[in-house]
Amino acid sequence: MERNTVNNNEEEIVNYANTSEYMTFELGKMKYAIELPKIREILTYPELITTLPN
């Protein structure tokens, strides 16, 4: 990421051309991130999952 200072008043222009956006999530105690273009579908699940016998 490039940072350029413009004028003498410390304003910055950030060049985001070479950056990526990520979605982050947690599974247990582990944290993960995946690039947004690689995501095909986001699924949700209910808070309470019914346990079935064997």
Automatic annotation (TrEMBL):
Residues 19-54 form the CheW-like domain. It comes from the Bacteria. GO terms for biological process: chemotaxis; signal transduction. This is Chemotaxis protein CheW. It comes from Halarcobacter ebronensis.
